Amino acid sequence: MDIHEYQAKEILSGFGVEVPPGALAYSPEQAAYRAREIGGDRWIVKAQVHAGGRGKAGGVKMCEDDHAIQKACEDMFGQKLVTHQTGPEGKGIYRVYVEGAVPIEHEFYLGFVMDRSSQRVMIVASAEGGMEIEEISAEKPDSIVRSTVEPAVGLQEFQAREIAFALGVEAGLVSQMVRTLMGCYRAFSELDATMVEINPLVVTGDDRIIALDAKMTFDDNALFRHPQVAELRDKSQEDPRESRAADRGLSYVGLDGNIGCIVNGAGLAMATMDTIMLAGGQPANFLDIGGGATPERVAKAFRLVMSDKNVQAVLVNIFAGINRCDWVAEGVVQALKEVQVDVPVIVRLAGTNVEEGQKILAKSGLPIIRANTLMEAAERAVGAWRNDLSQATRMRAVT
Ligand code: ADP
Ligand code: MG
User: What are phi and psi of 152, to 5 degrees?
Assistant: First the structure.
């Protein structure tokens, strides 16, 4: 789960990371009022969306008076901000963060990520901040400092000092850099984050180290341990199909194609999507109903898939190991009776009790297109989607 910059800053500041004074606003007037409360004579108005690259896309504006703040806000509120991280559809701006402008002397990049190959938290830092990490690694790869943290002991001060030295931090600022690194690491590990990124982390004209940007991502599977983090979820920033699925305990990723997939297990979901593409189609989603595919779950999954207007065929691909094909087949039949499904449905079942499962589908009298292998199922789904009904009917006759 992603959170907003202002939320990440509030969390990190609780762990000793210095951030500029700032406040959230939901309207242009409130933003101007907030700026007066913050004081000073220059402010930055920042669109709060779950994506980086806002600066270049017009989502971060420097303002010198009330009028400029209101104008900046009017240009942002209600708009979709399209950055290189949002995809072409962009993300809606419903909140802005107003911050006192900080005089920047130097910008660093600082990131904490889960490094799966070393199975450790990895700190990635560079003295070439301000650019995205992808640009830094393409243009100044030698400037990147990497260090992994031993989980049994956590980040040690000597290690944080080494990172500060490797970045060329001035002697007088090393202890502030160490405090920043230690704070980010503690926030990362105590809150089960999967990513903390500060870009830029700046040295100011008056020798302070301040986080001007902050991004945090959390492990969804650990959110139950951190209700105060789970509360920060902002559904306006998520794909509505994915939010609805998450609310129903299903794992769903919306895609751009036309073939809806209902599958059990993430690996099978990937294989199903690959096979659909191999057969010349495009999946509309990745939907994993998980292990215990009860009829209720299957019905929920159908409802969700059918709510996507792009779906022109649904492929159900279940491999029953712990599950049983007859239960799943009952689920499919029940779902098709409950949910209005006006597109072709292709079902491929394999594993435990597959014959009983097939019988239930056949006896249901519902227009279900059955397939024995995944390739067959994908081809039938693609055939049906292409509205090549003659092909679909011919195949149904063969089954
Ligand atoms: P993004 O990474 O989404 O573009 P940032 O928060 O990094 O957004 O802001 C973009 C740029 O705006 C920063 O690299 C920094 O140069 C400048 N900036 C952001 N916040 C401040 C601030 N409080 N004071 C001065 N400059 C800022
Ligand atoms: Mg940034």
Answer: -65, -30
By residue range, what is the domain housing residue 83?
21-100
Q: 225 a known binding residue?
A: no
- CA of residue 85 to ligand 1 center, whole Å: 16
Q: Which residues pair with 120 in a beta bridge?
A: 115
Domain boundary residue, one of 100, 131, 150:
100
Q: Which ligand is nearest to the CA of 197?
A: 2
Q: Cα(206) to centroid of ligand 1, in Å?
A: 18
The answer on 61 and 174 residing in a single domain is no
Burial of 271 (0-12, 13-18, 19+ CB in 10 A): middle
Structure-token pair, residue 128:
């070439």
Give the Cα separation of 187 and 193 in Å (integer). 8
Written as six digits, the tokens of 390 are 């003659």
CB 155 within 8 A of CB 182: yes
Instruction: Find the mean pLDDT for residues 101-120.
Output: 96
212 lines ligand 1 (CB under 6 A): yes
pLDDT tens digits, residue range 174-185? 999 999 999 999
Residue 151 near residue 120, CB atoms below 8 Å: yes
Residues 222 and 246 in one domain: no
CB atoms within 10 A of CB 306: 17
Q: How many domains does the chain have?
A: 3
- Is the same domain home to 70 and 130? no
- Residue 299 above 90 pLDDT? no
Residues 44, 150, single domain; the answer is: no
In a domain, 5, yes or no: no
Asked if residue 55 belongs to a known ligand binding site, the reply is yes
Residue 4 lies in a domain: no
